[in-house]
Amino acid sequence: MKAIRFQATIPRYLSSKTLGRFFPSVFYGPMSCITYDDVKEPSLPNQEWVKVRVKFCGICGSDLNLIFLHDSPATSPFASFPFTIGHEIVGVIEELGREAKNLSVGERVVIDPILSCEARGFHEPCPACHRGDFSLCERMTIGDVSPGLLIGACRDTGGGWSPRLVAHQSQILKVPQEVSDLNAVMTDPFATALHGVMQDQPRDNETVLIIGAGVIGICVVAAIRSLGSKARVIVLVKHPFQAEMARRYGADEVVLLSSQSDYNQQLADLLGARVLKPIFGSPVIQGGADIVYECVGKDQSINDSLRFAKSKGKVNLLGVASIPHKVDWTPIWLNELDIKGSFACGTEEYQGERLRTYALALNLMRSGKVDLASLVTHRFPLDQYREAIETAAGKGRTGAIKVIFEP
């Protein structure tokens, strides 16, 4: 079968890094770390695993970071090369291991991609998995499969940018009949947003600022509203089409980040804050939002998340930042901010019940509290992967929100 894989050889990495600054297409061209080749179908690591035929798989912002070599080398020990990319998966079970329970061939499923203790064959969970913090598992590099934080970064499992992959039974969640395939393929980004929001659930009387209106930013808006919060939600967006989508999913106010407008003053006015001018550099904001969700992961967006949080405010970093170079950390100590990171998802407390974030996401979809199918704007076959990557990376030109593959 054909698959899109990442192969981090030193020559390919260095040539892409050097030439990619001038010609971005080098990052997914013939001499890049990305290949589209015939590969052997992955086999079941043991009889607790299943094989899934992929119906749809999304292109995640983290996939683009990988392709354009923005990831920190600190993540490399948590991957095994070459690996098939893709972790936002909806598919159909094709093969069951003899010990896989409560699953049937032909069932429509999504896959929680995190390769934590149970998937790796450890029956005694590590402290993080015992708490339900599966994305923080301490055994991501050992066990029954090769190193990998998740499916889509492990050479043994395959990934969603191919026709088939394997997953442990604990990673499989059945898709309710009420949830369409296009809604289901959004389960992973929605669960990621839910996990971030539920770390700091906004109260009805609080003001929330969401920086960035890509898929995660819109999903944060959707998560806040689907959980029932009436908090005031302000979103800083880059493109007009993102503003429209943010409002559709429940934003109260939207500010467009453009060279023609002073977004600092606009945001400050909405937040009831003051804009102060330093000797040089970015304006200083006095006052701000109760909670800021940073959903971009760039120098400017991180700076803005710190500047626009009020004193004693909370900042949740959902953007996949690697090595920001020009971030001013002064607001953290000057305003005694509470900063949190958020990675993937785990287990949440919801209406007195503890359940996996993926299960909560599907429950909210099933009950009609959220439908994210409209975020899927572009669909491509695997052999058009270069066009798909260009579309996903060029949002301002293409109007893309979520780009998916149909293997």
UniProtKB/TrEMBL annotation:
Q: Which InterPro entries match?
A: ADH-like_C (IPR013149), ADH-like_N (IPR013154), ADH_Zn_CS (IPR002328), ER (IPR020843), GroES-like_sf (IPR011032), NAD(P)-bd_dom_sf (IPR036291), Zn_alcohol_dh (IPR050129)
Organism from which the protein derives: Brevibacillus halotolerans
List the protein's name: Alcohol dehydrogenase catalytic domain-containing protein
Which ranges does the record mark as transmembrane?
A: 208-228
Lineage, uppermost ranks: Bacteria, Bacillati, Bacillota, Bacilli, Bacillales
Q: Which keywords, in A-to-Z order, does the entry hold?
A: Membrane, Metal-binding, Oxidoreductase, Transmembrane, Transmembrane helix, Zinc
The cofactor named in the record is:
Zn(2+)
Q: Which family does it belong to?
A: Belongs to the zinc-containing alcohol dehydrogenase family.
Per the record, the domain of life is Bacteria
Residues forming the Enoyl reductase (ER) domain are 29-405
Q: Which Pfam families match?
A: ADH_N, ADH_zinc_N
